[in-house]
Description:
globular, 5-stranded antiparallel β-sheet, 4-stranded antiparallel β-sheet, 131 residues, alpha+beta
Amino acid sequence: MEEKHNNATPQRPEGARPLDAGIIPINIPKYIDQIKGEEAYGKNGKNAITVFKSEQVTITLIALKEGEIVRPGSEEGEAIMSLQLIDGNLLFESMGNAVELKKGELLTLHQLLSFKAKAINDCICLLTMVK
């Protein structure tokens, strides 16, 4: 298996970290602190970091401030997804249904289904997409 790493960016200059390897320990509390401490979170009210990415699976940690909305990007439309709420409350809407997710709850959604998610209060989500 070929290991894959991210590249350093102006927002995250610390350099490469593994995104795909045989085993990758993921320190969720560390990444929560990181994304909440970055300028994007303070400026935009939301921030995210991809903690694993292969051809079939992408796992992204997302921090949202109260009132922020998330809509599907291009990859979400093509993938089955799960959204686990690590902290806070989130209103998830799809197919004419609204579901309030609370801390520790998990929601799944089949591909090609539109959705909108709104942070009821500050929240942390773990988004997993499977192609």
